[in-house]
From TrEMBL:
GO cellular component, one term: cytosol
One of the GO BP terms on file: DNA repair
UniProt xrefs under PANTHER family: PHOSPHOGLYCOLATE PHOSPHATASE
Domain of life: Bacteria
Single GO term (MF): phosphoglycolate phosphatase activity
EC code(s) of this entry: 3.1.3.18
Record-given protein name: phosphoglycolate phosphatase
Enzyme superclass (EC): hydrolase
InterPro entries attached to this UniProt entry: HAD-like_hydrolase_sf, HAD-like_sf, HAD_2, HAD_sf, PGP-like_dom2
Catalytic activity: 2-phosphoglycolate + H2O = glycolate + phosphate
Pathway noted in the entry: Organic acid metabolism; glycolate biosynthesis; glycolate from 2-phosphoglycolate: step 1/1
Amino acid sequence: MSAPSPRLIVFDLDGTLIDSRQDLCNSVNAMLDHLGKPELPDEVIASYIGDGASMLVRRALGDPEGDAHDEEDVARAVHYFLEYYRVHKLDFTYVYPGVMDSLAAIRAARHETLMAVLTNKPVNPSRDICDYFGLSDYFFQNYGGNSFHTKKPDPHGLVALIAEASALAGSRIAPAETLMIGDTDVDVLTARAAGAVSVGCSFGLAPERLAAARPDFMVDSPAGWTRVAGVPSPLS
């Protein structure tokens, strides 16, 4: 099955376009070590990813609700994490196999379809990573978790991208003509709140949370994006 003629496709970054798990886990454990706290298993840290840097750090500190630590202490921990990650964000991170081929296939088959990134990762490392791997060539915009006053699953960023894409296209793009592709429940909830079509990536960082959110479509590889978008697969 495919979505009806998508005119805008918005991608999450971590767990969708790139596998950044190891660098994020290493950065969290470097932060914990800096604070004199025990390191956490990678599997545990990976389950905390998806809601932005501040929430990732809070969860690693055992403070998911934000009421067990002094805010200045949290701010210092977040700062250390971000500074470490800024230097080490490309140590082990890679683009998932098939991503570039699928983006190229969509671009070739649907010249008029616009593509963008909407992630909860801070915008500067998001853009730096996309630039480094050549992903930015496919996107008219790349917004991060600090680009707006709210993060996903609040739909504000997605709604803003729809408006921006509509202006570029010269006609209104409806939410139903928009795909939100991501690997966590956060992306599914964002799409649902905006009225967009959600596409879940089961190969990402949070397959259990994703399945529970019940996206409109589920794919097990980047090649599945072309199927949902109704374009020839790069493997065909």
